[in-house]
Each structure stands twice: as structure tokens, then as C-alpha cells.
TrEMBL record:
The chain crosses the membrane at residues 20-41, 53-75, 96-121, 170-189, 201-225, 237-257, 283-305, 326-345, 393-414, 421-440, 460-483, 490-507. GO terms for cellular component: chloride channel complex; plasma membrane. Pfam families: Voltage_CLC. It comes from Cyprinus carpio. The keyword Metal-binding does not apply. Keywords: CBS domain, Chloride, Chloride channel, Ion channel, Ion transport, Membrane, Repeat, Transmembrane, Transmembrane helix, Transport, Voltage-gated channel. This is Chloride channel 2c.
Amino acid sequence: IYTKDASRLRKTFGRSLSDLISLSLSLSLSLSLSVAWASHFQRLFVSFIGADWIFLMILGFIMAVISFVMDVFVDNFTEAHRWIYDLADSHVLLQYLAWVAYSMFLMCFAAGFANIVSIQAAGSGIPEMKTCLRGVMLQEYLTFKTLVSKVISLICVLGSELPVGKEGPFVHIGSMCAALLCKFMSLFSGIYKNEARNKEMMTVGCAVGIGCCFASPIGGALFSLEVTSMFFVARNYWRGFLSATFGAFIFRLLPVWNRQEDTLMALYATKYRLDFPFDLQELPVFAVMGIVCGFGGAFFVYLYGKITLFVKKQKATNSFLMKKRLLYPALVTVLISTLSFPPGFGQFMAGQLTQRESLISFFDHRTWSNHGIVADFDNDDHLAAWKHPQANVFVILSIFVIMKFWMSAISITLPIPCGSFVPIFVIGAAFGRLVGEGLATLFPDGFNMDGHVYHITPGVYAVVGAAALTAGVTHTISTGVIMMELTGQINYALPILISVILSNMISQSLQPSIYDKVIRIKKLPYLPMLSWGHRDKYNIHVGDFMKREVRYITLNSTYRDIFKILRSGNLKTLPLVKSTESMLLLGSVERAQLLALLKQRSQHLRKENAPTIPISYKVHFQIEEWEEQQLDEQVNFNNCKIDPAPFQLVERTSLHKTHTMFSVLNLDYAYVTSIGRLVGVVSLKELCKAIEGSLPADGVRLRPILATFRDRGVRGSWTETTELRKLLDHQIS
């Protein structure tokens, strides 16, 4: 019995063991297959999420939602402002207090919130983004804290109805969203850890910012090209267009989804005639408007600069305003709100209309007046605000242009998130409407062409004026494209482009753009553009404005020499030459590498002289007596990273070529050599001074126009031959 039970037990155990082994093998195989499939799906998910088009669509969607939500809040603030104003209609004084106090409260809250949370949220943000894309990363302008501060403060600023816009700040918001999204996407794809690629995505963010404000993807992409980048990377075209198009589509789709609009259409849709849009006799008028807007844009930039510098140069006022940061915005808000109070002076400038309502009335296809007298419109029509019993339409529009001009220039100097695009847009539209109404009065029967009568449409002149004045302030051509997408009128492309180009030509020859003006005032490290009238850009050479006194190190330098050079300045990189006599440039060494050499030397001295080193020893601040002899030893550069090919220029390099190289390569400095010998250095500072036509620090004047021909014909070849002979003689000896 025992034998039978044992054999039966062995058979049963054997079968169980084999089943257990097969089960474990199948489980391990299934587990390995599951792991393989999981890793495969993970790679697919990571590659899918990390794809460019996914990033661009997410960015466009985020910006569209932010823009739509911001518009909803601003509309609610505006309606609340009107409701409080109408609630106090029993007494004019109560209406005035409600009108002014509401705007002042929102403005003070916006200024205080931006100052407490992130002061970097103030201003437009476009100048800082230009600086970042130039290569100088201002990380504090790209944080999540700055994003929150910018969005919330901007909502309150726009709700206060001050003459400022959201387009400039939205470019900054788009760049911040792109930078933060890159950090998030780096969790899925390592390519988003690349700094150069992230800069390209910031450029896309600038395009989406404009696209989600005006629902103009083409104009937004072109605007980002013109404003933020001096040289645009071609591969960013499709990225900018894709993200801006998707963002603009979502931005216009959300009002339909929210039942605010019936279908997708232009933001400021117009009803101009399409069969005969304009007459050829009107083209000279459009050209003159472009010229006038060019002068007007240059004057606006000039006025803004004067106001800003006046506030900063008044030391007592500036010190007081720095302590009372809310006082300046409050005073300006009270002043502007008082002047725009509808029962007061605001009745002469349609003070009860918002900027959007003003644009709608300017772009209207109807003619307002008959011989200067505004026609009767319904009370719920925006055009009724421009009718006044004691003034005709020309007086009303002239007052509006003049008042809004200086009001906008003052408003954008406040320490709040604000842009100049929309207020300039409104002023240009008002000027164009003024011209159009004047022509409609002079030619009430219109133009007669081959038996066809074409009546003048003043709204068309408003469209052209808005694009031209904005182009004169921003120095961009893309404002014309934005205007076409904004109004849905491509038939007027020729008049718009003519006025925009002429406005650019005039303004660029007189003043920098509004963004470059801010860069100069804030002294941001940015290279200005060469103007069209810069005649000496080919006749001025590097040798005329370079810095000849260069701090350098040689192969024979001692530790004491390096210590003195490092203490004498904060240069990030120092040139390495063969010797003081030859000055042959061998390369460049970063400051961090030289500090590492000194640190290694000090550690070596510590090991050799451990008993004699005092406890208070510090490498950078204190030199003990026992080190004096050691510092005179020659430096060993074998363990030092040396850049063998730093960027170099020659003395004969023109200003134009130098500017191009600094712009394309994002250079901060370049060494100037003559037959391999170091003769000077050019930094961004010297180049900016040369472009602006000022004198360098050493007082050397720029070369005259004929200097190139004189040197080339008289002494150019002799000088180079002499220097080459000296160099060869030195090498032989």
C-alpha cells in the first residue's frame, strides 16, 4: 500500500511540478510581451505627444481660450461700468463719481497686483521678447507668476476703459505660454530641452498672440516675423501659420459655441461694395494719407519718449512715484476719465463708446453727414454718439483724434500691462473717417467713370488710416494684412498697402519703432536696425568704432596676471594671444575656466602647505603672504578649455556687414584682427553707438565718406605690406 501511494504521489507531484513550470513560463512570456507592448505604446505616446503639430495646436488652443475668457470678463466689466453710470442718472455729480471711481479702482488694482505679484508684467512685453529672441534670455519675464500677473492685471486695465490695447501684452502672453509649454513637453520629449528650439517656439507664441486677438493668422505670423526677429528662420513659417490658424479658428468658434454669434466671420465685418471698390482718382488721396500717418506715427513715438524721459528725469517726482506706485496710474486715470465723461467734455468725443464700438462706427459703410451735419440715427446705433447739436462731424472727429493721441501716449507709460496697437488703430481709423467724410462732403455725387457713378465710402478711408498709422508706429507692413483679415476686405489691398508702405518710409526715417524706443529707454541689450537712410553703413568700418584697449592673457601669463585681470572687470571671455609682442590670437578662454585654474592652483597649494594655511583663507578675496611667490609662476593651460576659433572681424569690415553678422549669429562681441594679430574688440555697445551715430567712449570720430577710397588708393596696400613684413621678421627671429 505504501509503495502504491508513493508511486501515485510521485506521479501527482511530477504532473503538478510540470504544470507549475509551464504556468510560470507562460506567465513570464506574457509578462515580457506585456512589458514590450507597454514600452512600445509608451514610445508611440511620447513621440505623438512630442510632435511639433501637437505642441502647436495645444498652444493655439490655450491662447484662444485665454483670449476668449479675457474678452468675456472685459465685456462684463464694461457692462457693469455702464450699469453703475446709468443707475446714478438722477444727478450729474453722482454719475461723474461713478464714472471716475470705477475706472480708478480697476486701474489701481491692476497696478498694485502687477507690482506685488510680478513687476515684469507691466508694459507691452514685446521689447523684452525681442531681447530674449536676440539671445539675451530674461527668464523672469517667462515665469508662470508673470503669466498670472499679466492676464489678471490686463483684464482689469481693459475693463477700466483706458485707451490701451491687449495685442502687445498678448504677444508676451503667447511667448510665456510657449516657454512654459516647452518645459511641460520636455517631460515627454527631450528635444524640448534644447534652448535654440525653445526660442523658435517663443516666436510661434508671438504669432499666436496676434492671431488670437484679431482672428488674423496670416497677419499674426507676419507680425511676429517683423517685430520680434531681425532675421527669421524659414522653418518657423509653417509653425507660426499652423498655430496661429488653429488659435484664430478656436477663438472665433468659441463665440458661436457660446451663442454670441451665429457663424464664423471677420471680427469687424464690413459691407462695402465689391463690384467697384475704389476709383483710381482716390489713390493719390490714399498715398497722402500714408505720408501724413508716417509723420503722425513718428510724432507719437517721439511724444511717448519725451513723456517717459520727463517722468524719469525729474528726480523728486520719480522718487515720490516710486514710493507711491499707485498714485501715478490713479492720477492719469482720473484725468482721462474726467475728460471722457459723457455729459462733460466727453460729449465732443463720443466718450460713452468703447474702443471696439468706436471702430465699428468708423468702419461703417454709411456716410455720417451731409455737409458736416450728422444724420439722425437710432439711439441704439453707435453712430448716434457722434451727433452733437453744437458741433459738426469734422469738429467732433478732430477733437477725438487730438485728445486720444496724447491720452494714448500717456496711458502706455503707466506701470501696467498695456499695448499701443489698438489705441493707435482707433486714432488712425478716426483720422481716415475724417478724411473720408471730408471727401464725401466735397464730392457729394461721387466720381463719374464712363457713365458709372461711384459714391465715396468714408469707412474705406477709416480702414486705410488705421492700417497706415499703426504701421507708422510699429514699423511693420503686416498691419495691412491684419486689417484685411480683420475687416474681411481684400478688395482694398492696393490702397492699404500703398498707404502702409509710404507710412513706413516716412516714420522709419524719422524715429525708431515704438518697441525699439522702449528698448532704448530701458537700455535693454538689443541691436537696433539700420535705417533706410543710413548712407554711411558701407563707408564706416570696424576700425573706426572698435575698442582698441583690450584686456587679454598670453601663454606666458602668471597666476597673478590672471588674478588682476579678473578683478579689473566682469568680462565673460578673454582673448588668448601668443605673446605681448606678437599679439597673435590663439583663441579665447571663458572667465569660469580661469577661475577654475585659480581654484585648482589654490587646492594644490593647500595640499602642499596644509599646516601653514590659515583657516580664514579665501581664493578670491584674500591673498596670504605665503602665496606671493606662487602667484608669479606661469599658468599651465593644458587643462583649460580654450575656444580655438572665436568670431573675428577685420578692420575693413563695413558697418553693414558687422550688423548683419551680429544679428544673424546673435553675437555679443567679436575680436578684430589684422593678419592674425589682435588689434581690438567690438561689443554690442560699440556697435549700437556706431549705428546711432554717436561717438565711442574714446572720442574717436567716425570715418568720413571718402575714407575708404583714400585708404585704398594711398596707404592701404602699404600698411598691410608693412605689417606683414614686421610679422614675418618677428617669426624668423
